[in-house]
Request: fold
Amino acid sequence: MKNAMRTFIILALFCVLPAFAQRGGDHSGTYVGEVATSSGKVTNTLVIKDVKGKVTGTLTNQYGTLPLIDGAMDLDDLFFVVVVDDDGHPFRMVYRGRIFDNEFQFRIEAGERRIDLIAKKIS
Reply:
């Protein structure tokens, strides 16, 4: 009975571990998406480098090219902050996203506003 249980656990691990191994991974690359604003659509270009869960890179949009701050990747979840200059005052925007296939689906927290952004991988 003890050997049968051990065999079952080992087989279960061989079935479950590959599923976890497929998640996460290196999501480095360039992603592009558009956000609808009151003045029209705004293109957002995200360039990320994912090194063992630490994410660096830039976000380019109507505010210019901004560095990613506190970027982190946990399996398929991405988090980072950008700070924009709002007439001489720093304004913090928090990006929380999840990758599905080759696109990130973000929820952006910009003050009291919540904005959705889908950014597709282009390279």
Summary: The radius of gyration is 19 Å.
